[in-house]
Amino acid sequence: MHEILVEVGEDNTEAELWDEGDLAGHLHQCVPFALPNDGGAAFVDHRPGPTYGHVYEMGIGHRRAAPRWSFRR
Fold it and tell me: In this structure, are residues 5 and 27 in contact, taking their beta carbons and an 8 Å threshold?
């Protein structure tokens, strides 16, 4: 699933659907851990900064990853 996330991020950044600074441009720094029923993925953001540890879900038909919760205190 990590390889798929990386490919999606690269493909959509190249197609200019997402900015390189967006989370989607940094999916290589995310760790997937679940597969929701919509065919997408739930993953933890491991980029340094204020969103480190936040959990996002990205499914089919979503142009942006939607934040769900955080493992940070």
Answer: yes
Pairwise CA distance, residues 28 & 45, whole Å = 10
For residues 69 and 21, give the distance between their C-alpha atoms in angstroms, rounded to a whole number. Answer: 21
pLDDT in tens, 54-67: 888 887 666 556 66
DSSP characters for 24-48?
GGGGGGEEEEE--TTS-EEEEE-SS
**Average of pLDDT values for 13-25?**
72
- Phi (first) and psi of residue 33, to 5 degrees: -140, -10
Six-digit token string for 63: 């142009």
What residues form DSSP beta bridges with 54? 70
Tokens of 29: 């720094």
